[in-house]
Amino acid sequence: MALVRPRFPQHDLIEFKQGFAYYRAAAICRRGHVARSVLTPGDSYPDDSKCVACGALILTGCPSCQMRIRGKRYSQAVLGGSFSRPSFCDCCGAAYPWATKEERIYELENILDEEDMDEADRVFIHDRLRELREAGDLDEKRERQLWTQIRDRSGKFIKSEPVQKIAETLITAAVRNQLSI
After folding, report:
1. Is residue 76 within a helix (H) or strand (E), and if so which, with residue range?
2. Would you put residue 155 in left (φ > 0), alpha (ψ -120 to 50) or beta?
């Protein structure tokens, strides 16, 4: 197994400056287990490493944009501060594979906020997404009703590729088929 440097865009350094804060890169498996919270420019990391806790592939970059996964702040890395894995890429805003249902709905709401649509429809859809986000386990009938209302008011939003990818992780196959989503 060859060791390779973490996958980062050419313009990105492992130390990423955001204001006055510098962040190191992290290595986290697809299920959210933190393999390393600090990768430095000299580090190599196997490109096909698997998590020792669950066997999933370890990621060093965002699956959507390939930007490094934000690790510890530089001062925390030096002083040994705590680390909380991020749920969203700080470059493109996409949810990482370990994001919860609630976080994936936040991602849908973020995409909706950028959509060119009637404001009344946007508010209506936000209300339905909030109900989906805040509800515990919905029965299939209510879930279908909410997604039907979203589909009927959203125009091209629900058919866009990013929304389709997220919907696949949120909507049961049976409901997706019934709604043609």
Report:
1. helix 74-79
2. left
Sorting pLDDT into bands at 50, 70 and 90, what band is 75? low
Report pLDDT digits (tens) over 15-33. 455 555 678 899 999 999 9
Mean pLDDT of 174-178: 78
AA identity, residue 48: D
- Please tell me whether residue 37 adopts helix, strand or coil conformation: strand
Per-residue pLDDT, averaged over 97-115, amounts to 94
Look up residue 143 and give its DSSP letter. Answer: H
Distance CA(13)–CA(172), nearest Å, equals 39
Strands 3-4 and 45-46: antiparallel
